[in-house]
Design brief:
The complex is a heterodimer.
Chain A: H1 9-30, H2 32-55, H3 61-84, H4 86-93, H5 96-101, H6 106-136, H7 145-170, H8 176-183, H9 186-191, H10 203-209, H11 213-225, H12 237-268
Helix pairs in contact in A: 1-6, 2-3, 2-6, 3-6, 3-7, 6-7, 7-11, 7-12, 11-12
Chain B: H1 2-20, H2 25-51, H3 59-90, H4 94-99, H5 104-133, H6 145-171, H7 179-191, H8 206-211, H9 213-225, H10 228-232, H11 241-272
Classes of the chains: A mainly alpha, B mainly alpha.
Chain lengths: 277, 282
């Protein structure tokens, strides 16, 4: 009988990443209601905030700020619900113990989840920007495409690194994971300036909010794509790119370190299969 | 009647336990208040950036109060419909509750009561915060309490009935359609003039706002608390308070009929298709 060839090392890691990314990419497009709701719900918020700005006679660039912030909510929601609390869902459905038992790296599983989620969320964000720009006649004037690409790439690396880090923290949680994810919406939209320039917040609040990569990412992107963006920016784009680089390294390294610790702790305390409802 | 009241009381207690017992009381209180206050703060910051903090303009109480009372819509309406998904898919107890000798719609309405309580605390705290820190001018001696209480009573009933309509639809849907409640609440937020006057909407969208009962409910609440807001915006200025109350009463009655008939129809379909105890968790 021919023996089954087993992958190991880097090849196993990569195959795990692809295997976990696959259902994210395919599954999230296959379920049409998710595609609809994940575009429709942010569009409702975007439209409501745009009309608030119009009701108080705000300059038109603020409409663009809202559209861009609304698009970025797709990434934040994905990180919250499909990264941070994902291991809680897996625990609820009984998959988590299988993940742990399988001879592959949990880090590879999280990375696959992140890449798949990033792809699906990018598609949704593009649709939201396109629809919002068309509906509200948003004008863009990109100052530097290379910087814009760098900011977006680094924001996503840092953001999904944060998602992987928080997923390992959530490994210990049960029902409260759902509530914590639910709690981390409006307060983050406020602190990170999803619908207004973060510069308008208290300086130290903005500094604190900069720990969330979307704060720096959104601020830098607004500076790069709107004519008046630079005057409303919190820090210069170069400084924000530097901060995003640091955050990326910290979150990815932290996720790797914490995942191992939390996995051991969860096994020791018997939290991997519990279901406290 | 006693049986209905007992079902309502017990399900309200159950709803409260589900909502609150995952955390200690202090953490739960923080959780319940941070979200609505942050939501209000987003609007306050947006407003203050553009108007340089002109909180005396009538548009400010319009936005602030509309947003505060809208908390009820999200909590009560979606809370009742969410109970279907929660009991059927998460706790897997819907079939036991359904076969128990309780009036099922009454049970669902009771489940929504916990959310009503949490929402009421959030609304009061949000408004008190506005009065204390944002110069939201509400003169308690000038408040039309009778109109306020009538509007609140009608509004809560209306939202519960809308929740029952959604709950009926949820009986026929798989669990990953849970965002339906949020979508309806989001659409109402946009079209009911909760945070901006309807005149700001494009002309072709305004009729949607006029057929939404929440539009009239929010207008009545604003008028009862800060009467001066009514004169500042032309949208519903042509209606007297009595007319608005009658419209709200009429629409609540219409929604009552729709809720009862649609829930019965959905319930029958769910029974025929074996959906009461289905688990669609994937």
């Amino acid at each position: 009988m021919e023996r089954v060839k087993k992958d190991s090392g880097l090849l196993l890691f990569l195959r795990t990443v692809i295997a976990r990314a696959y259902p994210r990419v395919i599954g999230q497009q296959r379920e049409k209601s998710w595609v609809f709701f994940e575009i429709f719900l942010p569009m409702l918020s975007v439209s409501a905030y745009v009309f608030v700005y119009r009701a108080i006679n705000a300059p038109e660039e603020y409409v663009g700020f809202v559209v861009m912030g609304g698009a970025m909510t797709a990434f934040w929601m994905n990180v919250l619900w499909s990264m941070s609390s994902q291991l809680y869902w897996e625990k609820e459905t009984g998959n988590l113990s299988l993940y742990i038992m399988a001879p592959n790296s949990l880090m590879a599983i999280l990375l696959g989840m992140a890449l798949g989620g990033l792809f699906a969320s990018t598609l949704r964000a593009i649709v939201i920007v396109g629809l919002g720009s068309w509906m509200f006649q948003v004008q863009y004037a990109v100052a530097s495409f290379s910087q814009l690409f760098a900011v977006f790439f680094l924001t996503m690396v840092a953001l999904y690194g944060l998602g992987m880090l928080s997923a390992s923290l959530f490994l210990l949680l049960s029902r409260e994971a759902w509530h914590l994810s639910n709690l981390a919406q409006e307060p983050i939209y406020l602190a990170s300036g999803f619908y207004f320039p973060v510069k308008n917040l208290n300086f130290w609040v903005a500094v604190g909010a900069s720990l969330i990569p979307l704060t720096m990412g959104l601020d830098a992107m607004r500076q790069l794509v709107f004519p008046s963006g630079a005057t409303l920016g919190f820090l210069s784009v170069r400084v924000e790119i530097g901060i995003l680089c640091i955050l990326s390294v910290i979150f990815l390294a932290g996720a790797r370190q914490l995942l191992g610790t939390m996995e051991r702790l969860a096994i020791r305390e018997g939290r991997l299969t519990e279901s406290r409802r | 009647m006693i049986s209905y009241l007992r079902t309502f009381r017990i399900s309200a207690w159950l709803g409260w336990q589900i909502e609150s017992n995952w955390a200690d009381p202090f953490l739960f209180a923080v959780y319940s208040l941070v979200k609505p206050l942050a939501g209000a703060a987003i609007l306050v910051v947006m407003y203050s950036i553009i108007t340089k903090g002109d909180y005396d303009s009538p548009i400010f109480p319009y936005i602030y109060l509309g947003n505060a009372f809208y908390i009820y819509v999200g909590q009560l309406m979606t809370g009742i419909s969410w109970a279907i998904i929660d009991d059927r898919e998460h706790y897997k107890t819907l079939k036991y509750i359904y076969t128990a000798p309780v009036h099922f719609p009454t049970y669902l309405l009771g489940r929504g009561m916990a959310r009503l309580l949490v929402a009421s605390i959030s609304v009061v705290v949000t408004i008190v915060f506005g009065v204390l820190f944002l110069r939201l001018r509400i003169d308690l001696a000038q408040v039309d309490w009778l109109m306020f209480l009538l509007a609140m009573a009608l509004g809560v009933n209306l939202l519960a009935l809308m929740g029952l309509i959604l709950a009926g639809i949820m009986l026929l849907l798989v669990h990953h359609s849970w965002e339906l409640g949020g979508a309806v609440a989001g659409a109402l937020y946009l079209f009911s003039g909760a945070i901006f006057p309807l005149d700001v909407l494009p002309v072709f969208l305004r009729p949607i706002g006029y057929i939404m009962p929440v539009t009239y409910w929010l207008e009545l609440l604003r008028r009862s608390l800060v009467g001066s807001v009514a004169q500042a915006f032309p949208t519903l200025a042509g209606f007297s308070n009595g007319q608005l109350l009658l419209i709200l009463l009429g629409l609540t009655a219409v929604f009552g009929v729709i809720a009862v008939s649609s829930f019965r129809w959905c319930e029958r379909r769910a029974l025929e298709r074996g959906l009461i105890d289905v688990v669609t968790n994937y």
